[in-house]
Structures are given as C-alpha cells and as structure tokens.
UniProtKB/TrEMBL annotation:
Biological pathway: Pyrimidine metabolism; UMP biosynthesis via de novo pathway; (S)-dihydroorotate from bicarbonate: step 3/3
Subunit field text: Homodimer.
Protein's organism: Akkermansia massiliensis
Annotated active site: 250
Name by which UniProt lists this protein: Dihydroorotase
Amino acid sequence: MLDFATIFPHDTRMILELHSPLDMHLHLRDGDMLKLVAPLSSASFAGAVIMPNLVPPVADADAVQAYRQRVLDACGGDVFQPYMTAFFRSYSEKELATLKELVFGIKLYPAGATTNSEGGVRAMKDAEGTMSLMQEMGIPLLVHGESHGFVMDREAEFLDVYRDLATRFPRLTICMEHITTASAVRLLDEFENLAATVTLQHLLITLDDVAGGMLRPHLFCKPIAKRPEDREALLKAALSGHPRLMFGSDSAPHPVHAKEACGCAAGVFTAPIALPRLAALFDGHGALDRLQGFVSGHACSLYGLKPPARTVRLQRRKMLVPDAYEGHGQKVVPMEAGSVIPWSLV
Ligand SMILES: NC(=O)N[C@@H](CC(=O)O)C(=O)O
Ligand SMILES: [Zn+2]
Ligand SMILES: [Zn+2]
C-alpha cells in the first residue's frame, strides 16, 4: 500500500489516484434502499464500516453474516469489503468470540440518541462487562457519543463518558464517531486509545447552513452541525493529517418523503459525492497530499486493516450533483443536490 496518493499535476485535467479509499462510518440500510445506495458507495470506496442500526438491529452472529451477504449482493461486481459491526448489547464471552471473527467492531448507541437506537444502552455501567471482554479480545468499540441534553451540548456533555471509558479501558480502542466539536478534537490528543471519524458535512457546514436561513432538511443530522469554530477545528485536524482522525461519511439515506416532512428524519446522504467533494475541499486548501491518509491510511494503520487493493481515480473536472438518486422504488436526495463540484470520479 502506498502512503501517498499519486498526483499528476502536469495533466491539465489533474488526476488524483487514491489507493483503497475507505468510508469508516456508513449506513447502507436494507431491502430496496440497500439495493439503491450500496452501488453508490462501492463505486467510490474499496470498503466501508457498515452500521448495524437496522430494524431490528444487527445484534448477533447470524444477523451479521446474513446482512453482510445482502450488502455484497447489492454491490454488484465491485470489489468492496464490508467491515461489519454489531449493535452493542450485553454479549457473553462465547458470543464475542464468535463475533470477533465476523465484525470489525461493536457500535454503542445511547438509547434513543439517533435513528433506530431505541434498543441502545440506557446506563453506561451496564455496559462495562461487555467492554472489558472487548478490551481483552481486541474488539474496537465505536460510539455515537451524545447525551440527552440540549441539542447543541450533547456531544460536549458526552466527552466525560469518553474520558472515563478511555481511562478505565486503556487497551480498548474507542472510536468517537462523527465528531462535531473543537472539544472532541482536543480530547483526541489526550488519550492514545481514542480515535475519531468525521463526516463530510461537518467539515463543510455549521448550524447556520441547516437552520440559519430557510430550513434545509437534507443537512439535518445527528449530531447537529455546530459553530464556525467547531468546523474550523475539525477541518484543521483533517487537513493537517491527524493520524487518529479518519473519514467516516455517516452517509445516512432516508427516503425523500421522510426528509421533506414536518418531522424530518436525521441523516445526510453523501455517499455519491463524498470523494469528489473531499478532493475539492482538500484541493482548495492546498492539502491534496493529505487526502490519502484521511480516507484510508490512518484507518489502515490504526486498525491494521488490509483492504482490497483498488485504485480510485478522481479528476479536476466538474460533476453535476443529481437532484435525486432513484431506483428500486426508492428516491433519496444527496447533499448539494443540483450543485456543481469541481472534482469528479474518472
Ligand atoms: N447521523 C444521523 O443523523 N443518522 C444516522 C444515525 C447516526 O449515525 O447517528 C441514521 O442512521 O440515519
Ligand atoms: Zn450516530
Ligand atoms: Zn451514523
């Protein structure tokens, strides 16, 4: 695996080759939605960490294996490695031993914090036994880190939980999923066993973009986008190549009728624009050489991943983002629908 992407600046089109890009946090759903969105991820990425918040959640070995097969079937012919996760609950040592062979990690949701998380953890102390087994067995813990407090403060309030877990389980790799605040970026540097993913939207937008003018349902997600200084801190960490910060799109498709509704579902659909939009962002900051690490290298080093060898080529040529993606009776609207991105997949 090469450390750096290959850049061909002499080409007027400017081609960027990414080696085995990975999406470290992805919702593919199931059924017809899975059939529509899986190929849009496998067209760009060599692999992805697949979230388990289906209804019912993916919470045992049989469910993981069956879901993995449905994901592979939906990706068609693309070489794509689904890194499966199981929904956190109290698991026995025997169950964890079986799961360890099948999953990348176990994903903890505080009960009710986000989409399909009702069966999540109600009291963190009930989770300790399983976490301690995970630590012994080397199974990473992925966390949706939000309290049940005021919406803008939920992540900041959860940071004490991360601190506590990182201290009490020093050999457990804990990934703070989709961080949105400057304080979470600072916490990353306090503990070697903490890692984090960050989404495309949280590098680009603030709450102003969601609700500062006309309400933009397709930018509404959990955790909600925060303040300009938070976005700056996330962007700075990503562009500077922070080794424990990884790209995780959190691409979370909901049918258009669930987004354009008086009760709007949380989740931004970014899978098909993620890599071109990231290339445009990193290019705009003169940091294209940092993209390979962000979308693959950091994750491979941290978790010892060996994704399938695949080269994904991007070019500095315009992409018009479709108004919607439709198929299999489903319709989903991507972020930046109808706009032009200066980069595209070759
Ligand atoms: N991010 C979101 O707003 N929604 C995600 C769940 C999650 O990752 O929290 C979803 O599954 O829709
Ligand atoms: Zn989440
Ligand atoms: Zn998510």
